[in-house]
Amino acid sequence: MNSIFKGFSEITSSRLILLVSAFLIAFGNVTFFSNIVDVYPVNLKNSLFLLSLIIVFGGVTVLFLSFLCHKYTIKPVLITVLLVSSSASYFMDSYSLIIDESMIRNIISTDTAEALDLLSLKMILYITLLGVLPSLFVYRIKVIDSGFRKNLLSRIKLILLALVSVILVIVIQGDFYASFFREHKPLRYYANPTFYIYSALRYINVATEVHAQALKMIEDDVKAPAVNPHRELMIFVVGETARADRFSLNGYQRETNPLLRQKHVVSFPDFWACGTSTAVSVPCMFSIFSHDEFSHDKALETENLLDVLKRAGDNVLWLDNNSDSKGVALRVPYQNYRSPENNPNCDIECRDEGMLAHLQEYIDEHDQGDIFIVLHQMGSHGPAYYKRYTDAFEKFTPSCKTNQLEDCSKEQIDNTYDNGILYTDYFLAKVIDLLESNNDKFEPAMFYVSDHGESLGEHGLYLHGMPYFIAPEEQLHVPAIMWFGKNYHGVDEAFLEKRKSIKYSHDNIFHTVLDFMEVDTSIYNKSLDILSVD
Question: Which homologous superfamily does the CATH classification assign to the domain defined by 231-407+418-528?
Fold first, then answer.
């Protein structure tokens, strides 16, 4: 580092922005340019376009940084961008993730344990080489202060140069860029740092608007039934990162549901998520809005299913063995089971089964009103799939004992993920056992739905969080399972078996739960109720 400074001890702010932009384009965009070359192979026809793309991308990066960097912010901004971009490079290069608005929301809501699961030697190397070392250079180099007027003129020249270069190149290569912008929009999502900066600014804008809004009541006509011979008891299990095609109940060739198969459950094999990340899907699952109507800001400023049930007089409880409720349980009792303080079943991490430890006590203590309990699983959250189950569920081997999925074979990844599904099968069977013990006092039911799926290497993708409109089926097709106790007076198992062929989604949850909990309200939509009799 000292040898670098001997020949490079001071620099103008405009040149520093150009230098950092060039570094980011050269070393922080492997995935971006790899995807570009896949669509536009290197040949004589495409060569000018590929060269022009470097100019356009460089110009756009310079423009972004020029508007963010000023006299007192230039070093903090550039250092922040370098460090964040090094992390973005790692995740894009390793898992083909896109850092869009929903992914930023997911990152912000990620807890320490989840963050540590992602840590690896490769990640440390990325951050050190692409983030820390260039940040030290920016920190130590002297930025020449030529006075306000000269600095302003220099910055205006830089912005005009970048803007004219971008426009001129796009005009000259018009045919290529028409195709690029119209037909290959997803390619731009890998641009580092411009796309995540753009997404972050959008996230901040929306979050600011939402916090300024008061909570909107859906309707004021919510009420419980006047006559209720049996109290309702529903445990709604929010699954995590489970794929429908890995449940043997849905036809998977491996037996991943040996216990549920004995419980007379009904599995809906054609069920779809409204998002590809927990931060989007969980609020959407409990929202009155359909996927087409849903937005994160609308969900936060509007009552959700739990609010409606609470106003109907039901006892509502949220137990969480994941990061949190993503804003859904803000107005109902909430307990965190990620800590041994509440969860008695913890080893290398706290297990989903621990959420059942004190549930019977809660049920016994509430001798009036119906009961609705949400259990938010850790489930099959990656990339450390091997942590999601105990040794007793190591059925499929060899497994992948690392969070560096690229170091494991497809077989190892599949085996480890399937072992996690086996543990979910065990956990859901334990939920049903608890409900069965309350058959005499309640109409008990379990409704399990995963928040989203997971890519396990298909199409070169891993994990989840792709933008919805380009997300693969593996991230959207989720398992959904129902079980009802002996006192349930509604539809029978044979009726539900006939409905298994129907396509359902998270849109159906709100109205199906209202039906089971016998909540009378004008917001109920029979056409979206899985339990309704036509």
Answer: Alkaline Phosphatase, subunit A (3.40.720.10)
